[in-house]
Design goal:
2 domains; eight-stranded antiparallel β-sheet; four-stranded antiparallel β-sheet; 28% helix; binds 2-oxoglutaric acid; binds fe (ii) ion; iron; oxidoreductase; vitamin c; metal-binding
């Protein structure tokens, strides 16, 4: 089928299937089976049954995904060397906010380690006359090597325990500093399957499947992590973190997110991206 169109007949057929009790997942499978293009099929389902119909693939409990153990929904979780609070959890998309993932000292320690290296990258940026400045991302950043110091290793193994995802499937921690007015416009963290550089990037560890953004300080105002598709704002609170996962590199995961502009003070975050496989 080349020119596929969403006709009134198709919409009526979808409505019939739904009335007959078939879940949208089965309707989608039937459409794909008879040759419909997935994105058109999802659009048609969304038009007839509402947005949520396009989000049938469960991201919670999907085997082979990073996922904290919330089966008991205890208010505090054991992350190996620290008790971490669960502040809130959303199932679809999977978003979990943790409290007290890091101690104040650990946050300060990471900022201290990152500071000098941020300064260095600023010098490089000046040398190239700002040619790499990206208006969508007005923060300064650096990457740690995995396990490069005792503090980094401790934090990484805590994250691995909490999210039940092997340490070697994670990229090195990235630290970002946002000054007043700086932001990170909404984006997806997975690698765009349509981008020319993606096949090469995927050779090292496969796709990203999850993100943990850890707040290293509490800005005076602004700087929340926003999820525009679901209307969620996560307040940046020192030591807290927001986790979200995406089982496919597609906007239907609803994991569009960004860092809203910092209004007062600075905002520091450490981001851990989780890959499908071993990242070396
Ligand atoms: O700063 C934030 O709140 C979001 C950071 C982010 O999206 C990222 O590091 O990928
Ligand atoms: Fe991101």
């Amino acid at each position: 089928m080349s020119q596929q169109a969403i006709t009134p007949e198709l919409l009526e057929w979808i409505a019939d299937q739904s009335r007959a009790g078939h879940p949208s997942e089965s309707i989608l499978a039937a459409m794909l089976g008879s040759g419909w293009d997935e994105s058109i099929a999802r659009q048609a389902l969304a038009r007839q049954l509402g947005q949520s119909a396009t989000l049938t693939a469960p991201s919670v409990g999907t085997p082979g995904m990073p996922e904290p153990d919330l089966s008991r929904f205890a208010p505090v979780m054991d992350a190996g060397d620290r008790q971490v609070k669960v502040v809130m959890a959303l199932r679809q998309p999977r978003v979990v906010v943790f409290g007290d993932l890091l101690s104040d000292e650990e946050c300060d320690g990471i900022i201290e380690l990152a500071k000098t290296r941020l300064a260095r990258s600023e010098t490089v940026a000046t040398g190239t006359e700002g040619s790499e400045v990206n208006a969508a991302r007005t923060s300064d950043g650096m990457f740690f090597e995995r396990c490069e110091s005792e503090l980094i290793r401790r934090v990484e193994s805590r994250i691995a325990t909490l999210l039940r995802w092997p340490l070697d499937h994670g990229e090195g921690l990235q630290v970002l500093r946002y000054r007043p007015g700086a932001e990170y416009q909404p984006h997806y963290d997975y690698f765009d399957p349509g981008h020319v550089s993606t096949p090469n990037i995927l050779k090292r560890g496969g796709q990203r499947v999850g993100t943990l953004v850890i707040y290293l300080n509490t800005p005076g105002a602004g700087g929340s992590t926003i999820f525009p598709d679901i209307g969620l704002d996560v307040a940046p609170v020192k030591g807290n973190a927001v986790f979200f996962s995406y089982d496919r590199p597609h906007p239907s995961t609803q994991t569009l997110h960004g860092g809203s502009p910092v209004v007062e003070g600075e905002k520091w975050v450490a981001t851990k991206w989780l890959r499908q496989g071993v990242f070396n």
